[in-house]
Amino acid sequence: MSREARARFLAFASSAGASWPGNFRDFNGAILRMATLAPGGRITTEIVDDEIARLRDAWRDADIAGVDRGPLEDVLPPERLAEIDAFDRAQLAEVLRVCRTSPSLSEAGRRLFAVSRARKAAPNDADRLRKYLARFGLDRAILRGR
Questions:
Q1: Which residue among 19, 88, 93, 131 has its CA within the 20 to 30 Å range from the CA of 46?
Q2: Would you state the pLDDT for residue 19?
Q3: HSE toward the beta carbon, residue 107, CA cutoff 13 A
């Protein structure tokens, strides 16, 4: 590995942008791929740049398609899902789970807002849930698969 290639790969590997979800397996695979693709057995900066791009693409695809999405991929198109923060995805996934296991929107609202509804003079859990779902372009019919 050339000195420049090594410096470039190590800078990437230890940066905040390198998530390494597969830990050593991803790292080992990257080194093995670069060594295999190296012309004349020497890893160049071009090979390192190609591998960094491949890793970033793979990690981005895993983020979009992986655990963060969960059941949301059934109700939201990929381009819409890509616009939603991970925090909101987690919250929306739980709302979706509760809605799918509740017989009505009112029951789902009661379950989701059990603590905060006690502070309201006139709790309307179904309306509150309907408005939350509308923020993401969803309604009860979509969630129930109708």
A1: 19
A2: 75
A3: 8
